[in-house]
Amino acid sequence: MTPVLEAKNLKRDYHIPGSLMKPAKTVHAVKGVSFTVEEGKTLAIVGESGCGKSTLARMVTMIDPITEGEMLIDGRKVDIASEPLTSEMRSKVQIVFQNPYGSLNPRKKIGDILTEPLVINTKVPAGERRDRAMAMLKKVGLEEKHYGRYPHMFSGGQRQRVAIARALMLNPRLLVLDEPVSALDLSVQAQVLNLLADLQDEFRLTYVFISHDLSVVRHIADDVMVMYFGEAVEYGSRDQVFDDPQHSYTKTLFAATPRVDIDAIRARVERRKRVA
Amino acid sequence: MSAVSNTTEAKTGGTPPSGLSEFWFYFSRNKGAVIGLFIFLVILVVAVFAPFVAPHNPSVQNRELLLLPPLFQEGGTWGHILGTDAVGRDILSRLIYGARFSLFIGLVVVTLSVVSGVLIGLVAGYFRGKVDTFIMRIMDIILAFPSLLLALVLVAVLGPGLLNAMIAISLVNQPHFVRLTRAAVMAEKSKDYVVGSKVAGAGTLRLMFLTILPNCLAPLIVQATLAFSSAILDAAALGFLGMGAQPPTPEWGTMLAEAREFIQRAWWVVTFPGLAILITVLAINLMGDGLRDALDPKLKRS
Amino acid sequence: MSLLEIKNLTVEFQTASGPFRAVDGVSLKVDEGEVLAIVGESGSGKSVSMLAAMGLLPWTAKVTADVLTFNGRDMQSMSDAERRKIIGREIAMIFQEPIASLNPCFTVGYQIEEVLRIHTDLSRKARRDRAIELFQSVGIPNPEERLGHYPHQMSGGQCQRVMIATALACNPKLLIADEPTTALDVTIQKQILDLLMKLQAEHGMGLIIITHDMGVVAETADRVIVQYKGRQIEQADVLSLFSAPKSVYTKALLSALPENATGGRLPTITEKLTDAEIFAGAVR
């Protein structure tokens, strides 16, 4: 079976034009990253700010061109630098952003936000567009009465549901989730993670899940890739990476993650008592 | 901390206020703005219904009543509340008809400069690069001239008259809209919802006009009201200099110019058109301040 | 005697949709050398309650409290001038956005020396030495050189260290940290939390950490207050809160942690709870 997404040695450089005071320079944001994601699986990309994970997301979503390397979606090569995207390819990959307050057009009603992808890419008549949007609203746990409302009338979690619904309107194969729950409260985060899991099962969706939160990654991922300064320093199945991290950076990352288990807290409290 | 943010999403207690009522809430907090709005509405009604409101025909000359003082001064009559001018025309009626011109000028100038300014600014802010540099340098050049002087030169080239004055003022006003639009577009363009729309396949025109532009409107509306008042002011100045509306048009600036020589003998001929300009411009500016408070999210306490 | 004591604090804001009660009947005590975490989701009023206690809210907020004392002195009857003397010297605060909390127009050295100038009688030379000493204590390498840097030349973690150094400049008795690590990466968060805990132990000061992150609570707190929509839901020491939460809300919250997940889906109990049920389950 061909994997939904296959990336071979992806690279992305940014050219910063020089000015009077400083010479032009090239920033290597992603330095040759390879991975594959099978249908219905979740690949989590973990890293801290500036590690190139968002740049990678923009390449996979075909927003930014690839500087070097090869990307295949459903076995077909994609290169937006040399040829324009067909709406068929466009529909295959959609994205959900971190900040639910910035990712929905504040001047548009939810209904218009959801039907926009259909208006642009398909010839579906207005009535059916509306029906599909309504159905999708219910699928992501919202109600039909929300169709005519504006984004500012919703909470962060509800907006994120709308953003997920919009991404699914074109029946994509691959969903890039760029820190989709980082801006949400704990209880809402759980709801959205559950929703994502349900949708994955129902539509056989493939996820590229970008996150800095290891506990979320451990919960949702099948495979994990750890990025550090544009390189993939660790790549393997979830259990492999979490149980037996190889790279020193991965180990640092795990050590830095706060632990909420009772033994760890008890140990800390006792340590504190001894010092006091 | 947002007052309406809810923790648990399933329970959205109480609908948040609708756009209009929220707008009015912030607008009405500014008392000056409400007063401005009221005065502006009065002027608008008076201008629209000028033939019914004005006691006399603005261009009929009454040779028997030259430079009649206003009602409250000795010798004034109820027939001419604000007195008459040097050729015996009723000043109040002329002011009422003049309001039509002033509002018309404001409307045309704002429409012209907003439409052209927004289009150019949108192109500059969206495409950036060389196009942007080219457009902005031209705008810088226009802005480098004293605005009234530039308008004067343009009118001198095009020939005096109300229409040409309006075109000239629009051209002078337009760079402000270009700059404002460009800045707003640049700020909006990098936002996630625009990228999201792009991922959904939206083309350039759709992104520019349907996605980005509606989100840049708030500062433009504020600037448009302020431009409205400055257009009235500029038109009056051009009229005063004899380059705008030509006599006997009852345009306020032109009225001022005609009355210049009577400033010693009959103060009312000069004062009332001046007051009319002052009050209108002040009202619109106050209103603009209120609009800014209500529409600018940066000033809004959340 | 507690360092900070608050009883029945209430804060109301006037908004477009009428008066909004952001904090409703919050009571707390912090002792010297104690770390108190106030945890809650957005809209729980955790930051507002602390800002209100410090008198740092805008005039639109109406603040009332039965008791509001710091070190035995009543903060409500105090004049603004007196309160200003206490805040910054005896109570210090650090905020979520370290880069935004520093003035971009001045060097970090100028800003820390400014605080020393206002609150102490040190000479210019002594202020500089103290600034260097403070930078060393918060683990900023090359303090002499770093003093001359502007905020934009430093990373978020470094800026937060500067903020901590500035907060500690006058040896405060109480430090309030409002989401101190939310804007930072995990590895930097670890460093900053370790630093805060080390400094807290060294100075024996009271520390209030306001956070939404259960991980931060677990790593730092002695005692925890859980807030929801402006009200206190539970107050407990950290170990009993995590091992045996009493209120329904805290239980629901802890079960939603991905770390505690047992199956493929996370329990979302809070979704089914109404506000009334949450408030009824509150354990003071």
UniProtKB/TrEMBL annotation, chain A:
Keyword match ATP-binding: yes
Superkingdom of this protein's organism: Bacteria
GO cellular component: plasma membrane
GO molecular function: ATP binding; ATP hydrolysis activity
Pfam families noted in UniProt: ABC_tran, oligo_HPY
Organism annotation: Shinella fusca
Principal location class: membrane
Keyword Transport: yes
Record's protein name: Dipeptide transport system ATP-binding protein
Membrane topology qualifier: Peripheral membrane protein
From TrEMBL, chain B:
PANTHER family in UniProt: D,D-DIPEPTIDE TRANSPORT SYSTEM PERMEASE PROTEIN DDPC-RELATED, OLIGOPEPTIDE TRANSPORT SYSTEM PERMEASE PROTEIN APPC
Family label: Belongs to the binding-protein-dependent transport system permease family. OppBC subfamily.
The name this protein goes by in its record: Dipeptide transport system permease protein
Main subcellular location of this protein, as a coarse class: membrane
All residue ranges annotated as the ABC transmembrane type-1 domain in the record: 99-288
GO cellular component, one term: plasma membrane
Membrane topology classification: Multi-pass membrane protein
Keywords per UniProt: Cell inner membrane, Cell membrane, Membrane, Peptide transport, Protein transport, Transmembrane, Transmembrane helix, Transport
Membrane-traversing stretches: 33-54, 101-127, 147-172, 266-287
Gene Ontology terms: biological process: protein transport
TrEMBL record, chain C:
Keyword presence, Transport: yes
Cited Gene3D superfamilies: P-loop containing nucleotide triphosphate hydrolases (3.40.50.300)
Membrane topology listed for this record: Peripheral membrane protein
PROSITE patterns: ABC_TRANSPORTER_1, ABC_TRANSPORTER_2
Major subcellular location class: membrane
Keywords associated with the record: ATP-binding, Cell membrane, Membrane, Nucleotide-binding, Transport
Origin: domain of life: Bacteria
GO-annotated biological processes: transmembrane transport
One Pfam family per UniProt: ABC_tran
Matches recorded under SUPFAM superfamilies: P-loop containing nucleoside triphosphate hydrolases
Domain ABC transporter: 4-254
Gene Ontology molecular function: ATP binding; ATP hydrolysis activity
Protein's UniProt keywords contain Transport: yes
A single cellular component GO annotation: plasma membrane
Compartment annotation: Cell inner membrane
Family listed: Belongs to the ABC transporter superfamily.
Protein name (record): Dipeptide transport system ATP-binding protein
Organism: Shinella fusca
